[in-house]
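Structure tokens please, single chain.
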Amino acid sequence: MRNISEVDNDILIRTVDFNEDYDTLVQLWANAGPGVHLGRSDQKEELLKKVRRDPDLFLAAETMGIIIGAVLGGYDGRRGLVYHLAVAPDFRRRGVAWALMDELESRMKKKGCVKYYLLVTRDNIDALEFYKQYGCDVMDLNVLGKEI
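Here you go.
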């Protein structure tokens, strides 16, 4: 499994160091725009539960030691899920999101994942277009959830 891969000459994709990177990642997500919604499950203690399960599926893109993008993936043994793909505004449309997704897909495949899902809010047109270009299909589903 690759831990670091090169996107451009100066942008690296790496596994997140949760304790070191958490605060920076929350700031990235909070400033990502209309599509990333932070909730109770994004608090440090809650997110740590996810990271303990799939530490290799939490990726960061960085340049010159600064995190400029991130994605969190999960695999439950049957299906994968992609959460919170975000790239800092100044680094968008440079292949960072594509590289993050390529690395996440590669790591999911190595775990045996053959299909994953992701959620895109209706107001996040840019993300919807990105995922369509990336090869994801829009599915005709109702998504339900319940906080417990």
